[in-house]
Amino acid sequence: MTNTSPTRVDFYFDPACPFAWITSRWMLEVERQRPLDLRFHPMSLYLHNADNELPDWYRELVDKSIGPVRVAVAAAERHGEKVLRDLYTAFGTRIHERRAEDFDAVVADSLAELGLPAELAEAAHDVSYDEAVRRRHDAGKERDSDAYVGTPTIHVEGTVWFGPVLRAVPRGEKAAELFDSFRVLAANPDFFELKRTRTGGLSFD
Question: I need a labelling partner for 34 at 20 to 30 A (CA). Which of 114, 128, 131, 187 fits?
């Protein structure tokens, strides 16, 4: 691509979502190949599914997912927005790549890894953070519908998208080529959906 000005990308994540994790790793690959102004923001699967009937296994995941999100919000408010990128990576590496199920341990280990105060872990069970969580969650919504289509959610130069949903992380120039194609679609005001049947398992490699 000939345009070298950075593309603004706002990535909304819940640490518990495997699809957001894969797409976020793709965006980090793209960042190595294309000029991006990539910013990470927390959203909440718990809020997104508040009124939904879910299978028991997914309801359990959604209910406990609010803990790491609260911690991410607390960390950003005390230490600045830039902490979110590394904190999300620390959370996601443990949850998705190492299959950790104890989110309290995930939080504690991640804070220690990044040298952040251990007392931030208390936010995981502190409902006083929920107003701030909701504000940040709502910032990721599509403005016209005031809703999420799903997660991952990406804002590209102000346009709001669900996805791309990937089952594996594209690497190198392949990652950049996919983003180039995505930008073309995202810039078309008449385009709103493209989908095919999902097959195969997820790969976090």
Answer: 114
Q: Residue written as tokens 């950790």?
A: 100
Q: Give this prediction's pTM.
A: 0.89
Count, residues in the chain: 205
Least Cα distance to 38 among 46, 27, 47 occurs for: 27
Number of Cα atoms under 13 Å in the Cβ half of residue 94? 20
Q: What are the pLDDT digits (tens) for 132-141?
A: 999 999 998 8
The Cα 114–Cα 111 span in angstroms is: 5
How far apart are alpha carbons 172 and 163 in whole angstroms?
A: 19
Tell me: the pLDDT tens digits for 23-32? 999 999 999 9
Q: Quote the tokens at residue 71.
A: 């911690």
